[in-house]
Amino acid sequence: MKEFKVTYFFDEEHYIRRFIYMESQEAAEQLIQSERERYISFTDSRGIYHELNTRNVRVTQISEYFRDQ
C-alpha cells in the first residue's frame, strides 16, 4: 500500500489535510472523485475527528507521501 496526502482547500488560507492508504494514485483519485458533493468523516494523525462537506471545497490535491523514517 502507498500513502497519499489529500489536501482540501477552501481558500488561500484555509485547508484540511488527510492521509489515505491506497494501492495506486489512480485508486486514490477514484476514491476522492466518489466523495464529491457529500459529507465525509475521518480522524487525522493527531486524533482529531473531522466531518467535511466536500461541496465547499474549492481545490483538492492528491500526492503520494513519503514519511521520514
Automatic annotation (TrEMBL):
<protein>
    <submittedName>
        <fullName>Uncharacterized protein</fullName>
    </submittedName>
</protein>
